[in-house]
């Protein structure tokens, strides 16, 4: 299973310009306040290394799937961390 996921990530990295279909995170998963708090911590610690911390309202739910599929590998997040950051961002991106 792990190999399949890694292959999917490697494949989607090659195919970014063709579409966001095969990424590890494709929608919401975590809902508990602990997991969302963990996502917030990971976001605040990992996403300000190369640029300022982005505004969660910059993207809608679909937009964050696309952007995080490019940024999570840059921030060296594993699939679970990637998922928690995603769930955190979409929990607060509503205006
Ligand atoms: C290793 C460096 C690096 C890390 C770590 C990183 N980014 Fe980025 N990020 C970039 C670069 C370079 C760009 C501009 C080029 C691009 O858009 O791909 C960018 C652009 C962005 C943008 C603007 C483009 C868009 O799609 O809106 C957002 C938002 C963003 N990053 C979010 C994040 C988040 C969230 C994280 C944490 C998971 C993160 N980044 C971690 C390097 C990084």
Report on this structure.
- The protein is mainly alpha-helical and 95 residues long.
- It has a domain at 31-95: Cytochrome Bc1 Complex, Chain D, domain 2.
- 58% of the residues lie in helices and 0% in strands.
- It is built from 4 helices and no strands.
- α2 (33-46) crosses α4 (79-92) and α3 runs antiparallel to α4.
- The relative contact order is 0.20.
- Bound molecules: heme C (HEC).
- Residues 46-47, 49-51, 54, 58, 67-68, 70-72, 74-75, 77, 85 line the site of heme C.
CATH class of the domain at 31-95: Mainly Alpha
Query: Share of helix among residues?
Result: 55-70%
- Structural class of the helices, strands and pairings? mainly alpha
Ends: how far apart?
A: 38 Å
Q: Give the overall pLDDT as a whole number.
A: 85
CATH architecture level-2 label of the domain at 31-95: Orthogonal Bundle
Instruction: List low-pLDDT spans.
Output: 16-22
Number of helices: 4
The string of secondary-structure elements, in order, is HHHH
SS strand fraction? under 5%
Shape: globular
Q: What fold name goes in the CATH topology slot of the domain at 31-95?
A: Cytochrome Bc1 Complex, Chain D, domain 2
Largest sheet, in brief, is: none
Report the count of strand segments: 0
Rg over CA atoms, rounded to whole Å, is 13 Å
Bound molecules: heme C
